[in-house]
Specification:
Elements: E1 2-13, E2 21-32, E3 36-40, H1 47-54, E4 62-67, E5 70-71, H2 72-77, E6 81-84, H3 96-100, H4 102-106, H5 111-124, H6 140-152, E7 158-162, H7 170-187, E8 190-195, H8 198-204, E9 207-211, E10 218-223
Parallel strand pairs: 3-8, 3-9, 6-7, 7-8
Antiparallel strand pairs: 1-2, 1-4, 4-5, 9-10
This protein binds adenosine-5'-diphosphate (ADP) (2 copies).
C-alpha cells in the first residue's frame, strides 16, 4: 500500500527574486507502508526540503503530494506523522516523561492514559530510569532517544527524521542506528530518513533514494536487502 505519493513536485525558494533556488525539480517518489527509506545526498541537494514538503512544513511550488490518500495538510492535521530533527528540541522545563507525553496532552488524552503510553515509549528507548530527569541532565544521545520516544508516542503511521543522528558522536550514532532498526522492526512504522552518510543509509534502509548534488533531482534509487535483519 502506498503511504506517501510525491508526484512531479517542484519547490522554488525566492521564485521572483534574484537568489531563486530550485530546491526540488519534478520529484516523483512513492513510499510503501512499512518501508525504511533514506534520502541520501550531499549538503544542499534538497533532502530536507523534500522531507519538509512531505510533512507539510513547507509548501511545494507545484505538483501533488498525497499521504495516506489525503493531502499532506490533512495528514499533518490528523497527526499521521512523527518528526525527529538533528537537535532533540526538548522542553527544558519539562521532565523526560512530560516531554514524551506532550503530543498526547496536546491531543487531549487523559492524564493516566498518556502517562502509561509515555512510559511504554521510554521503555522502548531504554530510558525508563530517567523519566523524572530533566533534559539538561541527559547526554546528547539520551536526549535524542527521548525525542524519538516523543515522536512515537501518538503511534504515528509515518516517522520523518531529518539527520536525527547527525549531532552525535560515532559510538552513540552506531548505537542509535541499531536501536532505530529494532524500533522500526517492532513498531512497523513507515520511516523516511534524511542523511548524508552512505553507510548509515545502507545500514538502515530498505531503499535508498540518492539525490543529485545539483539540487532538486533524484539521481537514482537503490533497493537494499537488509544485511542485518
Ligand atoms: P539538504 O537538506 O540536502 O542539505 P536543503 O533541502 O536544506 O538541502 O536545501 C536545498 C537547497 O534549497 C539549497 O540550495 C538551500 O540553500 C536552499 N534552501 C533551503 N531552504 C531554503 C530557504 N528557506 N530559503 C531559501 N533557500 C533555501
Ligand atoms: P501542567 O502539567 O501543570 O498542567 P502543562 O503541562 O500544561 O502544565 O504546561 C507546563 C508548561 O509547558 C507550561 O509552561 C506550558 O506553557 C508549556 N507547554 C504546554 N504545552 C505546550 C506546547 N504544546 N508547546 C509548548 N509549550 C507547552
Amino acid at each position: 500500500r502506498v503511504v506517501i505519493d510525491v508526484d512531479n513536485v517542484d519547490k522554488v525558494f525566492d521564485a521572483s527574486g534574484k537568489n531563486s533556488v530550485a530546491a526540488l525539480q519534478g520529484i516523483d517518489l512513492t513510499i510503501d507502508e512499512g518501508e525504511f527509506v533514506s534520502l541520501l545526498g550531499p549538503s544542499g541537494c534538497g533532502k530536507s526540503t523534500l522531507l519538509r514538503v512531505m510533512a507539510d512544513l513547507t509548501a511545494s511550488t507545484s505538483g501533488r503530494i498525497e499521504v495516506n490518500e489525503k493531502s499532506a495538510t490533512q495528514a499533518r492535521q490528523d497527526r499521521d506523522y512523527g518528526m525527529v530533527f538533528q537537535q532533540p528540541g526538548l522542553f527544558e522545563w519539562r521532565s523526560v516523561l512530560r516531554n514524551v507525553e506532550l503530543p498526547l496532552q496536546v491531543a487531549g488524552v487523559a492524564k493516566e492514559q498518556r502517562r502509561q503510553r509515555a512510559q511504554k515509549m521510554l521503555e522502548l528507548v531504554h530510558l525508563s530510569d530517567f523519566e523524572r530527569h530533566f533534559p539538561w541532565q541527559l547526554s546528547g544521545g539520551m536526549q535524542q532517544r527521548v525525542s524519538i520516544a516523543r515522536a512515537l508516542t501518538s503511534a504515528p503511521k509515518i516517522l520523518l527524521m531529518d539527520e536525527p543522528l547527525g549531532a552525535l558522536d560515532e559510538m552513540n550514532r552506531e548505537y542509535l542506528q541499531s536501536e532505530l532498526l529494532r524500533i522500526w522492526d517492532s513498531t512497523k512504522t513507515t520511516v523516511v530518513f534524511v542523511t548524508h552518510s552512505i553507510s548509515e543509509a545502507v545500514f538502515l534502509s530498505s531503499r535508498v533514494v540518492i539525490m543529485s548534488p545539483r539540487p532538486g533531482r533524484v539521481a537514482g534509487v537503490v533497493e537494499v536487502d537488509l544485511p542485518y535483519p
